[in-house]
């Protein structure tokens, strides 16, 4: 009996591509500004791993280094070639790279599938060369990558006159180069400590998911940020999510192309088919990935995660000099699912002893020290220490009104506790961000970041699911499917018989008189173009739909159903729905000709099924790839 696992994707071997010991720049230039000039300058100023080979047939020296006339003249086995030449010359350059034993290439050049027409065939030719040679490639139509841990600036993201970033534990991988470059600059001003940035472009070979799968194994990477237009490697994405959870590394994803208009723009930009946003979000929830809706939210989560702190609970202590700011922050925390409990009497008494008298504020939580205390030396740092030490606070949000005149006090307060701290400042808190202290200019952003940190800290990691494929059961199921009518439809009694083979309770209906339904629901299965079999449960009249990739466990589905259904179902009803859904998924795994299954009109009473309608959609054998 064979086994289907959630994912068995191997770690891509990108070592020579991403950690080169020698670099050639094909199209290196002395001309500034130019892409070839910028790339060459960035490589020279950062690289400390070995030799650099500028390739330019018209120059004897490029930016102070000996120039090489062509790729064939290079020493053998250079690790990385960065290609910055017109698109028509790229295939020939790749052939030459393969002949010289070059390990990987970054194809910055544009003019491939994203422009359509002849560019599509040109990209296909590039793909054939890469497959034949085994050489790995990023691009084409990208801006390169940055690996600060090894001193590799194979990109034109930053102007060569810009200071080199200090580096850090965050890896940002973006399909879009321009958007990624914007994110890098925004990240550096937002206090995000980027150690890696990779732009994958048209993804003729290496994808965002493959890059993240390689980077998640690195000790110097502790936070993963991925910006996707398309998801060409769903299995690698799931494997990366599972591996990140196993290693305790937060994974944040931004999915573009959610609307029809944006999906069309994504195809025009990088020849990417965007895929189902609903399926993407469901898979993110299932495997512990934070799916965000904006660049700002992605960077905010990166800032709060990069320090490595973890929360022990959902309780927030708020320190403010403005009562109104405290009210707004309390709302923000509650809306994000956090708690703002009243501080214990002993803590309040200790804080009161610090206050100038008469004291006109509040010490319950929010701790409103008022402008009176703000003007008294030594009070704020003592209050911050007291709230941080309180057993009633798992996290702390202090408010800074105006430009902090003594940033060292706030920096010291952050360093004095192991609890997560997120400052809210009415002005951009540059001094704090530069010191690695999480700080935001909006209360909701701070609360959202801490809520994500809390969720990551407290949740159980996702479990790798497996399913045993049963050849005998599949044979019996196909015997049932042979009863389809001339129109291709399967009679409902046969549809029930099919699901009975997979253990679905919906195969039988308990029509006991006088029983009222405690839950109405619908269960369905469809095949997503990227993630394959996906199940959807719509529990209750106003419940939130639950979607998951197959295989999924019945306990996980039951928990999600219980959380999303309105009114909240009984445990028995949620368990019955979960088992129906798992049966749909098992059938889909064994029978690729099943394109969709629906169990509609479900009426349940304490786990018993009072009514149900079963419908199946079948593909033609040739379409489904049916095998015996």
Structure description:
The chain is an alpha/beta fold and about 625 residues long. It has 3 domains: about 15-305, Rossmann fold; about 315-420, Succinyl-CoA synthetase domains (Rossmann fold), CATH 3.40.50.261; about 465-625, D-amino Acid Aminotransferase, Chain A, domain 1 (2-Layer Sandwich), CATH 3.30.470. Helix content is about 35%, strand content about 20%. It has 22 helices and 26 strands. Helix 16 (about 430-435) links the parallel strand 19 and strand 20. The chain is flat, with a radius of gyration of 29 Å. The protein starts with a strand and ends with a helix. The model is unreliable at about 1-10, about 260-275 and about 620-628 (pLDDT under 50).
Largest sheet: 7 strands, mixed
Summed up, the domain count is 3
Beta strands, count:
26
CATH names the topology of the largest domain as Rossmann fold
Strand order of the largest sheet: 10-9-12-11-13-14-15
| Average pLDDT rating | 88
Going by CATH, the architecture of the largest domain would be: 3-Layer(aba) Sandwich
N/C terminus separation: 14 Å
CATH superfamily of the largest domain: Succinyl-CoA synthetase domains
- Outline: flat
The chain-level structural class is: alpha/beta
Helix percent reads 25-40%
Assembly type of the shown chains?
A: single chain
Uncertain segments are: 1-8, 262-275, 622-628
- What would CATH call the class of the largest domain? Alpha Beta
- Helical segment tally? 22
Structural Rg: 29 Å
Query: Strand content of the residues, in percent?
Result: 15-25%
């Amino acid at each position: 009996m064979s086994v289907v696992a959630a994912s068995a994707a191997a770690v891509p071997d990108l070592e020579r591509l991403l950690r080169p010991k020698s670099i050639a720049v094909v199209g290196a230039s002395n001309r500034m500004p130019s892409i070839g000039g910028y790339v060459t300058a960035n490589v020279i100023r950062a690289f400390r791993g070995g030799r650099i080979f500028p390739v330019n047939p018209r120059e004897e020296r490029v930016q102070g280094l000996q120039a090489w006339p062509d790729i064939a003249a290079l020493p053998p086995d250079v690790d990385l070639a960065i290609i910055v030449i017109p698109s028509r010359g790229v295939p020939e350059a790749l052939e030459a790279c393969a002949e010289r034993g070059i390990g990987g290439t970054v194809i910055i050049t544009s003019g491939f599938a994203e422009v359509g027409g002849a560019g599509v065939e040109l990209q296909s030719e590039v793909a054939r060369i890469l497959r034949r040679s085994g050489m790995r490639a990023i691009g084409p139509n990208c801006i390169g990558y940055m690996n600060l841990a090894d001193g590799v600036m194979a990109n034109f993201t930053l102007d060569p006159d810009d200071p080199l970033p200090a580096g850090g534990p965050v890896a940002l991988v973006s399909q879009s180069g321009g958007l990624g470059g914007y994110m890098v600059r925004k990240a550096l001003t937002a206090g995000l400590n980027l150690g890696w940035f990779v732009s994958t472009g048209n993804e003729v070979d290496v994808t965002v998911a493959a890059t993240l799968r390689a980077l998640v194994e690195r000790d110097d990477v502790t936070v993963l940020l991925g910006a996707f237009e398309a998801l060409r490697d769903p299995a690698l994405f799931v494997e990366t999510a599972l591996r990140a959870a196993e290693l305790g590394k937060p994974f944040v994803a931004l999915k573009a192309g959610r609307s029809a208009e944006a999906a069309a723009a994504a195809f025009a930009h990088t020849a990417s088919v965007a895929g189902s946003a609903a399926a993407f979000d469901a898979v993110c929830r299932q495997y512990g990935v934070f799916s965000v809706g904006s660049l700002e939210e992605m960077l905010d989560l990166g800032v709060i995660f990069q320090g490595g702190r973890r929360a022990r609970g959902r309780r927030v202590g708020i320190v403010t000099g403005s009562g109104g700011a405290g009210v707004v922050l309390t709302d923000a925390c509650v809306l994000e699912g956090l708690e703002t409990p009243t501080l214990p009497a002993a803590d309040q008494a200790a804080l009161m002893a610090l206050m100038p008298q008469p004291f006109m504020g509040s010490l319950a939580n929010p701790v409103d020290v008022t402008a009176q205390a703000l003007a008294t030396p030594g009070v704020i740092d003592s209050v911050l220490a007291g709230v941080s030490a309180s057993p009633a606070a798992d996290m702390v949000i202090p408010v800074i009104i105006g430009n902090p005149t003594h940033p060292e006090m706030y920096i010291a307060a952050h360093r004095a506790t192991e609890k997560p701290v997120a400052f809210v400042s009415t002005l951009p808190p540059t001094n704090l961000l530069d010191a690695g202290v999480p700080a935001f200019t909006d209360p909701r952003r701070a609360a959202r970041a801490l809520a994500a940190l809390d969720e990551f800290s407290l949740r159980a990691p996702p479990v790798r699911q497996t399913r045993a494929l049963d050849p005998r059961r599949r044979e019996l199921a196909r015997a049932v499917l042979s009863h389809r009518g001339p129109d291709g439809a399967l009679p409902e009694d046969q549809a029930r018989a099919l699901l009975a083979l997979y253990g679905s309770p919906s195969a039988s209906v308990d029509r006991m008189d006088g029983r009222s339904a405690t839950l109405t629901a619908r269960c369905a299965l469809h095949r997503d173009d990227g993630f394959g079999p996906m199940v959807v449960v719509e529990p209750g009249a106003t419940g939130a739909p639950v979607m998951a990739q197959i295989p999924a466990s019945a306990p996980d589905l039951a928990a999600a159903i219980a959380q999303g259904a309105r009114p909240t179902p009984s445990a028995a009803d949620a368990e019955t729905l979960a088992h129906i859904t798992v049966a749909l998924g098992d059938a889909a795994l064994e029978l690729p000709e099943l394109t969709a299954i629906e169990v509609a009109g479900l009426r349940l009473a304490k786990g018993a099924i009072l009514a149900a309608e079963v419908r199946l959609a079948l593909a033609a054998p040739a379409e489904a790839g049916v095998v015996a």
